[in-house]
Design brief:
Length: 570
Amino acid sequence: MRRALRGQGASRGIALGRVRVRHPQALVVDERRIEAEEVPDEIQRLHRALDAARAELHGLRERLHGALAHEVGEFLDLHVMILDDPELLQGLDDLVSTGRYSADYALKLQRDRLASVFEGMHDDYFRSRREDLDHVIGRVHAALHRRGDDGAVGLSGEILVCETIAPSELAELQSQGVVGVVAATGSPLSHSAILARSLHLPLVLGAADILAHANDGDALMMDAASGELVLEPDAADLKRYHRRQAEIGREQAQLSRLRRQPTRTVDGVDIRLYANAESREDVAEAHALGADGIGLYRTEFLFLQRRELPTEDEQFLAYRDLVLGMAGRVVTIRTLDLGADKADHTGLALRSEPNPALGLRGVRLSLAHEPLFLTQLRAILRAAAYGPVRVLVPMVCCREEMLSVLEMVEHARESLRVEGVQAGERVEFGAMIEVPAAALGLPDFIDLVDFVSVGTNDLVQYLLAVDRGHESLATLYTPRHPSVLRLLGELFSYGRRNGIPVAVCGEMAGEAANVPLLLALGLRDFSLHPATLLEVRRAVRESDLASLRRRARSLLRAHDRAGIEAWLAR
Ligand code: PEP
Ligand code: MG
C-alpha cells in the first residue's frame, strides 16, 4: 500500500528502486524456538544464508577497482575472516541443533555473545571491531530473509534502508549497485552526507519511521534533495517521478552550457568558485567545470576505514595526483581534521571522549601527535613541488596554535632539505574559521596567515551551540541566523581591509539560494562541492553585485530567520 514518509534530503538526485532493509544493530528477530523435526531444514537455511553472505563478500572484492580496492578491500577481508570464524559457525550450529533456536534467534544470540567478548577487550582496536561483527551478522540476517527470486549477488537497483550509515560504507554500497540510501538517523551536515554528494549517490537521512514501514522488495521512490519518500508509489507518483527525471535531465543540459562561461555578475565582477573535493572524481569534475582551484581537500578521507595510518609516500602520491589533476590551478589541502568521533574508523588509537566536537580534534589532534602531523606536512610540501599548493589548518582557536603549526612546517621543511628531498618553495598557509573565538580573534593572528576560509558547518554549530548532526535540532541549525550573517559580514570586510582573501567552504556556499546573501555581505571566494558549482555560477551570473551591496545594510538589520527569508524573497 502507498505510504508517503519524510526524511531530510542529504544529497541530490532522485531514485526509484527496490528496498533492501538492513536491520539495526538491535537485530529485530522473531525469537522463536523450533521443533526437533525442523532442525535439519533450519540448519540448511542457515548455511544457505552463510554461503550467500560469503559469495557477496567475494563478489564485491572482485568488483572493486583502484583506490577503493585498497581501502574497502581490507574491510571485506576482515568480514570474510569473521564469517569463517570456526567459533562463530560452531556456535550457530549448536544453537540451532541442540538449543533448538531458529536461525535468526541463533544469529542474534551468537552476535550478542561475541559482541560482549569484543567489548570486554582492553585493546581499542578489537573493541572497535564490534561494528564489523554487526555488519557481518546483518549481512547473514539479510540473506536469511531474501526471497528466492532475488538471491543474486549484489544490490543492483536497490535502495538500502537502514538505521545509520557510515561514510566508509557509501562507496562500497555504490559499487554494489545501490541506487540510493535512506537512514532513520543522521543529518545533512554529517560526513556521510558530504561523501554522498561527492559520490552523486541519493541519500535521505533522519527518516525516523522508515524502518517501521519498509520491507525487503517494496518499491521506494526517493528525492534526495527534498527528503520525500514514497513506499509502493502509485501511478500518479510514478508519473511525477518520470516528469522530475526529465526536468533534471533538461536542467543539467542547460547548466552544462555554463561549463565554459565566466563566473561574472551582471555588473561585470568576477567571483571565484573553488571546489571542495574528497576524491579523484571530484577533482576531475572540478577541473572539467572550470573551478578556479580546489578550495578544500578534506584529507581525513585518506585516513578513514584503514587499520594503519597512510604513510608519507601514500599521502604524497594522493596529494601529487590532486595537484597534477588541477593542472596549475591552486589546490588547498586541509590538514587532518579528525576527532574521537571518527577515530574508531582509523589506525589512530584515540580514547573516546564525552564531547568529541569540543575535544581533541582538528589542529589540536595534529599538534598532540607530532609524528603524524610531521608526516602529513612533509607529504604536502613534497606535493607542492608539482604545482601551487596552499595548506589549510582546521579548528584553529588562537594565535598560539598557528605559531605551533608554522614551527612544525619549518621543522618539516628542514628535514626534507637535510634529506635532499624536493619540496615546493612557496606554500601559502591559512586558517579555517570555525571556532567563534577565531572569528572574533582574527586580528590576533592575521599576520600569520596568507588567507582564511570560513567553515560555516562548524562555525554555525559552535556559534549557535547546536550539534550539526542532531536530527531534532535541524530547524535551529541554520546559517540564516542574524548573528551568523553579521559575523560573516565582519569577517569579509576585515579580510578586504587587510588584503587577506576570505573564502567560505562550508555547505552554505554551495547552495545557490544563498548566493545573493553571501554576495551582499561581501564574499568573493566560494568553495563548494562540484555537484552544485554550475548552479552557483548561474546564480552569480544572475546577480547584480552593486545593488546587492547596497541592500546589505537592510539584510544586517534582520532580527530573525523570517526577516532574512523576506530579504531574500525581495
Ligand atoms: C566546515 O566546518 O564548514 C567545514 C568545511 O569542515 P567540515 O565540514 O569538514 O567539518
Ligand atoms: Mg569543519
